[in-house]
Amino acid sequence: MKTISGGVTAARGFKAAGITCGIKKNQLPDLALIYSEVAADAAGIFTTNQVQAAPVILSKEFLKKGKAQAIIANSGNANACVGAVGMEAARRMATAVGTALNIPMDSVLVASTGVIGVALPVEKIETVLAAKSVMLTENGSPAAAKAIMTTDTFPKEVAVEIELGGATVRIGGIAKGSGMIHPDMATMLGFITTDAKIEQSLLQKAIALAGECSFNRITVDGDTSTNDTLFVLANGLAENPPITTANNDYLTFVQALTQVCLELAKMMARDGEGATKLVEINITGAKTEAEAVKVGKSVATSNLVKTALFGEDANWGRILAAVGYSGVEIDPEQILIYLGDLLVYQKGIGLVFNEAKAKGILSQKEILIKIDLGDGTESASVWTCDLSYDYVKINGSYRT
User: Fold this and answer.
1) I need a surface site. Which of 32, 283, 311, 345 has the fewest CB within 10 A?
2) Strand ranges of the sheet holding 336-339, from the earlier edge strand across to the other edge
């Protein structure tokens, strides 16, 4: 597997664009379009929140046929919780793209992100699409990545190249997410493209597996959004031998797809609203992987742990407490806790350790917390960030 440039347009036959259409008050880019030159197999996963935005509902409906050719996404407005006008706006977005690109409107997947409860000024999107103002290019990934940002501080894109059956296959993507991020999809949008030829049912399984090991293992603030969406389009232009069974090529594809998703997910955690540190919680010695994940999420979502990390305070007691209330049966007498390579808690006893060394570890931009449960052979990692003063500042006035 080789990392390459190009993001969501790295794969053959994909173009993208990002422009300003006036949805955001600050006149920053707020409309992204991704297009495949041919109809692609399509799959996706969505928020588990019972309150779901209009574009989520519409895209779920369109994905039932397993094919798509374009993705349209706006930022600055979630198009959520506005009643019937929300569904109308989502459909008008799809229709406008379909007309502009001369493709069926139900081959256009729709996504939105931004403020909840405000009607989307969809006419602004229709105007720029009708005027052909969205210039799709093979180098359009950076512009599209910027156009879906809300409180993100940097655009998020990645791409890789692999060999499948003697053919070179590329997988790339863009994503947005900084706040309202929590496992079980999080406010995140992720758009992945590939030129691999793979059966749609296997593509759906692949994105579900990749999402579970990446986007579903990050948390910023414990809030799951109404708009979380992850799409993958596979147009087959790499001309690899078609993947129709869960063979070795399929496993290689899943591994690469997971890597793309994981890199994007880690960018989200690193870019958490007000965050100063990326934190990996590595759980080992668990009975099952599911229990390892559950313990990791408990620690990762603890505000007390996250504020201690911001303050560079080696407060291992908060970590142990979060392990204890995770819902997983544990034995405190078997647990080891490390900050980086520094052992701070061992089998029921807090250790005397070098506070200066601990502070040095916690002052880094990337921090590893290792927790050995001493009760099995399974392991998992979860990623989060610290909780700073700026998180409150950003979210205290997000709507206004």
Assistant:
1) 311
2) 349-350, 342-346, 336-339, 366-372, 278-286, 378-385
Distance CA 8, CA 14 (A): 8
Burial class from Cβ neighbours inside 10 Å (0-12, 13-18, 19+) for residue 312 reads middle
**Terminal Cα distance for the chain, rounded:** 45
| Catalytic residue of the set 47, 150, 151, 187 | 187
Total residue count of the chain as it appears in this document:
400
In the prediction, which pLDDT does 221 show? 56
111-122 pLDDT, tens digit each: 999 888 999 999
Q: Of 295, 371, 301, 379, nearest to 340 (Cα)?
A: 371
Residue with tokens 């793309």: 260
In angstroms, the CA 147 to CA 34 distance is 12
Domain 2-268: give its CATH architecture. 4-Layer Sandwich (3.60)
Give 31's strand partners.
19, 74
Question: Does the annotation count 187 as an active-site position?
Answer: yes
Q: Name the CA dihedral angle for 233, 239, 241, 244, rounded to a multiple of 10 degrees.
A: 20
Task: Calculate the dihedral angle through the C-alpha atoms of 50, 217, 190, 124, rounding to the nearest 10 degrees.
Answer: 50
pTM for the whole structure:
0.85
Name the band, by pLDDT with cuts 50, 70 and 90, for residue 281. very high
CB–CB of 367/340 below 8 Å?
Answer: yes
Cβ 67 vs Cβ 42: under 8 Å? yes
The dihedral built from the CA positions of residue 278, 283, 288 and 294, taken in this order, carries a sign that is negative
Bridge partners, 146 (sequence order): none
Backbone angles phi, psi at 232, to 5 degrees: -135, 130
DSSP string, 292-321: HHHHHHHHHT-HHHHHHHHTT---HHHHHH
> What confidence tens digit (pLDDT) does each residue in 3-45 have?
999 999 999 999 999 999 999 988 899 999 999 999 999 999 9
Domain ranges of the chain: 2-268, 278-396
